[in-house]
Design brief:
By secondary structure, the protein is of the alpha+beta class. Helix content is 30%, strand content 31%.
Length: 154
C-alpha cells in the first residue's frame, strides 16, 4: 500500500469521492456524486490547506483517503486545522489503512508547525480516533445529531 498526496494522483479523485458519497451521500445537500467529486477535487491540495492523502494498492486502486482543512464545522471556526473526509473502503476496514492515513496526516501537520489538530465525528468513529491517540474534547448536539470533537497534540 502507498499513501501519497491526492494532488499527485488526480485519476483517483472520482474513486475517493465515490467512497465518500457512498458513506455520507444521504446528507441534505450532498446527495449527488458530482458534489462529492467537486469537493474532493477542491480538497486535493499539496502544499497548504486543504490537503488530502490517498491510500492505493499496487494496481492503483483507491483504498481510502483523509484530508486536512482549515475548518470543518461552523460552530468551531476558532480552531484549526481539522481532519476531514476520512474514509476507507468498507471491505478493507480494520486492516490498518485508516491508521496509516491518519499518521501521514499528523506527520504533515507537524512538519507545517501545527501544534494540534481537530476532528468532528459521529459515534461510530470515535473509538477509531481514540485508538489513534486522539482525545475527547467535547460533545454537543447539532442538526439533530450528536457531534463529538476530538483533538490531538502534534
Amino acid at each position: 500500500m502507498t499513501v501519497a498526496p491526492l494532488a499527485d494522483h488526480p485519476q483517483l479523485i472520482t474513486a475517493v469521492a465515490r467512497m465518500r458519497w457512498q458513506e455520507w451521500g444521504d446528507e441534505p445537500g450532498r446527495e449527488q456524486l458530482a458534489w462529492w467529486v467537486d469537493v474532493t477535487r477542491l480538497e486535493a491540495g499539496r502544499d497548504r490547506l486543504p490537503v488530502t492523502w490517498v491510500a492505493f494498492d499496487e494496481r492503483g486502486e483507491a483504498l481510502g483517503a483523509v484530508g486536512l482543512a482549515e475548518y470543518d464545522i461552523d460552530e468551531r471556526r476558532d480552531r484549526s486545522p481539522w481532519l476531514v473526509g476520512m474514509i476507507v473502503r468498507a471491505d478493507l476496514r480494520r486492516h490498518g489503512i485508516g491508521r496509516r492515513l491518519v499518521a501521514t496526516l499528523e506527520d504533515w501537520a507537524r512538519a507545517q508547525a501545527y501544534a494540534r489538530a481537530w476532528v468532528a465525528t459521529g459515534d461510530p468513529a470515535v473509538g477509531f480516533y481514540q485508538a489513534c491517540g486522539w482525545e475527547l474534547h467535547e460533545t454537543f448536539e447539532r442538526a439533530d445529531e450528536t457531534t463529538t470533537v476530538l483533538s490531538r497534540r502534534l
